[in-house]
Each structure stands twice: as structure tokens, then as C-alpha cells.
Amino acid sequence: MRAHATGYTPAMRNVRKARLAAAGAVVALAATGCGDPAPLEGQQLATVGTNGSVGQVELRNVYVQRPLDGEYQTGEDARVLLTMTNGGKQPDRLTEVTSEHAKKAMMRWDQRCDGTAEQVEAIPLLAGGTVPAPDGKAVTGHLPYHLELIQFDRKVRAGTTVPVTFAFERAGQTTLDVTVQPVHPSDEPARRACT
User: Fold this and answer.
1) Which run of H or E residues covers position 23?
2) Nearest to residue 71, comparing CAs of 150, 151, 147, 159?
3) For residues 43 and 192, is the Cβ–Cβ distance under 8 A?
4) Which of 27, 43, 45, 186 is geometrically suited to a Cys-Cys bond with 33, CB 3.0 to 4.6 A?
5) The domain 43-191: what is its CATH number?
6) How far apart are CA 121 and CA 119, in angstroms?
7) What integer best gives the mean pLDDT of the chain?
8) Domain residues of the chain, as ranges?
9) What is the distance between the alpha carbons of residues 109 and 107, in angstroms, rounded to a whole number?
10) β-strands 57-64, 172-180: how paired?
11) For strand 118-120 and strand 161-168, is the pairing parallel, antiparallel, or unpaired?
12) What's the pLDDT at 78?
């Protein structure tokens, strides 16, 4: 293949174009991270969590909200956000959550979308769907349910993981190493539902 007067071959031009495109993508990603990286109260980050599944149930973007000072101290509590979907033809329920690093775990669900997530004994999953939305309410962002890990038995640092076990009535049980939200994440914050 002959070199052109500029000294570049067509293949070299393609490599240069690819490098320029990659550099543009890096600049675009950096721009989205500009501004205040800390989400406001009641917000969650879009893609920082752990994914998993058991039976027909999918657990997506499961994460512990980040500690404000970089780590949770022994005895402190933490909120876990997640999205659950049921691909099965039968309804299911999350019936129990535990962690070997916490004294207990509680399930909370804002069933009326009124801003109060009450403690519940189980969180239902519709057949072929997710947790039921409140009647007459438009739910956007993170669905109005979450978990609370009560009284860590050790220090838990941002950017590490915590084992959390999820037990479902039909799908069975699984344990995930749930990500503790980093202190300075670059993900775009999104508003939670019902806030």
C-alpha cells in the first residue's frame, strides 16, 4: 500500500479517527461528572450496585448508601437500595433479608407513596413484574422500597462490599456481596420515587 503525500496510509487515518472518537468519549464522560458529585438526600446513584438472580427473580443495582464520613462505625445502621423483578408466571415475595455483618435487617416499603416507608414483613413481587405501584400514583426513579441493615458488627468502609442474603417465598435464597457506595462516585444521580 502506497503512503500518501501526508505520510499517512488509509489504515493510519482510521486509527487516528478511532483515537479521536475515544478521546471525545472520555471528555463527554468527564463532563457528566462535573458539578456536585454528592446526591441530595432522597436520591440514588444509577449504576453503582451489585446484580444477581435467584430462580425467576432478578436483583439489580443493589447497593448500600455511602457513609457520609467514608465508613460506617460498629453499631451504625445503613440503607440498602435495590430493584427487584419477577420473571415468573407466579407472584413471589421477599420474605427475609439477613447479613452476617449486621444484627438484623428490616424491609421497608412506602405502599401509599406518601413519603413514609413502613417496616413490612414481606415485599410482594407481581407475576411477570416488580413490586406493585401505589394506586393512582406515578412512580418514577427508584421504586419506593428499601432495606435497612441494623447495627453493623464491624467498621464498613465505602467502596467495599457487605454480604446480604435474600430469601424469596418461591424463588429461593441467594447471597450477594453488595457494594457500599463509593465516597466520590461519578454516576449521574437520579431522584427516588415518592420524594
Assistant:
1) helix 10-32
2) 159
3) yes
4) 186
5) 2.60.40.1890
6) 7
7) 77
8) 1-32, 43-191
9) 7
10) parallel
11) unpaired
12) 97
